[in-house]
Design brief:
The radius of gyration is 20 Å and the shape is globular. The longest helix is centred in the N-terminal third of the chain and has 16 residues, at 2-17. The N and C termini lie far apart (67 Å). Helix content is 9%, strand content 51%. Strands 6-5-4-3-2-1-11-10-9-8-7 form an 11-stranded antiparallel β-sheet, with no helix packed on it. The protein is mainly beta and 188 residues long.
Length: 188
């Protein structure tokens, strides 16, 4: 009987250690870069992400097919509306948004590639434990690999493979704070 209890506890402990697909915090802000394998696209963007109200703001500069661009967009998914903001011309164009809101998350059908420590594992708190996942994009759109923190499910790096660009790499840097989501950040 004791052996059964010990084996059950051991099994429960092992299962508790296995990473599971997760959802990122609903409010995130920071910066990201996007680069493509075929070198057609490179961007740097600041962003505000609000999964509670299903809205995203991107302010980016980049280069697409050797042409420099700037782009400022506020996407309001619940309203099905987006605003393209041109600070230079002081204009704002309202357009329909025909895309669904996809929260930052590791899908339930993702496969765990593995865990790693970014930084040092020499002492407690000196490294960051991350999980890498892989899977297929919806509608046979390609494949993805995504790395998130074990604690908090904060996205670090995501790669997508598409026909148009080959591998597309998105690297993220975050600051998490409700203070960043004051009303004036969303005003158009």
């Amino acid at each position: 009987m004791r052996l059964l209890v010990v084996l059950t506890c051991l099994l429960a402990g092992c299962l508790a250690q296995k990473p599971h697909p997760c959802s990122s915090p609903p409010l995130l802000s920071g910066a990201l870069t996007v680069s493509t394998q075929n070198e057609k696209l490179w961007t740097y963007a600041q962003y505000l992400y609000d999964a509670l109200e299903q809205r995203v703001r991107l302010i980016e500069i980049g280069n697409y097919e050797n042409k420099t661009f700037t782009y400022d967009v506020l996407m309001l998914f619940r309203q099905g509306t987006m605003y393209e903001i041109n600070e230079h011309n002081r204009t704002c164009k309202k357009k329909p948004l025909k895309s669904d809101f996809y929260p930052l998350a590791i899908p339930k059908d993702a496969s765990l590639v593995g865990q790693a420590v970014v930084g040092s594992s020499s002492g407690p708190g000196q490294g960051l434990l991350v999980n890498t996942w892989t899977g297929d994009l919806p509608n046979k759109g390609g494949k993805y690999t995504s790395t998130v923190t074990e604690f908090g499910c904060i996205p670090i790096n995501t790669m997508y493979h598409t026909e148009q660009f080959g591998w597309m790499v998105i690297r993220l840097v975050y600051t998490i704070s409700n203070m960043l989501f004051q009303q004036h950040h969303w005003d158009v």
